[in-house]
Amino acid sequence: MSSDHDSPAGRPSVTLTTDVGEGFGRWSLGDDDALLDTVTAANIACGFHGGDPDIMRRTCAIAAANGVSIGAQVSYRDLAGFGRRYIAVPGDTLTNDLVYQIGALEAFAKLAGTRVSYIRAHGALYNVAAKNKEHAQAIVDAVRLYDPALPLLCQVGTEQWDIAVEAGLSTIAEAFVDRAYTAEGLLVPRGTPDAMVTDPTTAAERAVSMVLDKKVIALDGTEVPLEAKALLVHCDTTGAVDIARATRAALEAAGITVQPLV
C-alpha cells in the first residue's frame, strides 16, 4: 500500500531528506551538521558504500537530537566505488547484505533513543532496482524480513515500487530536487551534461512544482508526471546546504508542510 503523507490540516505535505553519514574513517563528505539542521529525514549510510561505526553513531545522535527521522540507506557492498557501481550479486546474498546494514544502523539509532523509520536504496542499487526485478525483489525481501511495517522510499512506476506494493509494503514516492530526469521519469546518469541541478533557486522551484503540480520537466523538455512525498537533496551535490535551505523555505512559503517521516 502507498503511504498517505498529507498533513492533518489538509495542507499538502512532504518530507525533505538528505543522504548523510557517508564519510569513512578520517574522510568526510558534505556538511552533515548543517543539513541535519534543515531536513526532516536523514538517509544514513550503513557501512557498505560509506559510513563506519563512529560516523553511524554520531549521525544517529545528531538526527535524534534534531527530531530528524532516521532512514537506513542500504547499498551494494562497494566502499571503493561509493556504491555507484553495479555489483552482480545473487538476489539472496543481496537480501542478506541489506538486512545486515539495516540491523547495524538500528543498533546506533537505538543508542540515540530512536529507531530506523524507513528504508531507502542508495546509488547504483537504487537505479538498477528501477528495472532489475531480481535486485528490486531483494530490497523488498530485506524490508519484509526485517520489519514489514517499515516504509520503503522509491520512485513510482519502477520495478522496486511495483514489487513492494504487490508485497503489501508501505511505499513512499520519492523525487529528486538536485537531479535531472529522463523523459521516462528516471534519473539522468551522473556524468551526463546537466545531470545535476545545482542552482538553489531552480532546485527550490522544481521542488514546489513536484509537490503541487505533480510534474517535472525532463532534460529534453518533456513534461513528466510524478509523485513526490519525499524530496531528496544529495549531501555531495555542489551547494547542497544552500539547496536544502532554499528548498525548505520555498516549500513552506508555498503552504506545504515539511515534516519528518515517522
Explain what you see.
It is a single chain. Mean pLDDT is 95; it is low at 1-5. Helix 2 (53-65) packs across helix 3. By secondary structure, the chain is α/β, with parallel strands linked by helices. It has helices at 32-36, 53-65, 91-111, 123-128, 133-146, 159-166, 200-212, 240-253; strands at 13-20, 41-45, 69-74, 116-121, 152-154, 171-176, 215-217, 223-225, 230-233, 257-258. Strands 1-2-3-4-5-6-9 form a seven-stranded parallel β-barrel, surrounded by six helices. It has eight helices and ten strands. It has one domain (13-258): Glycoside hydrolase/deacetylase (TIM Barrel, Alpha-Beta Barrel).
Overview in brief:
The chain has 262 residues and is an alpha/beta fold.
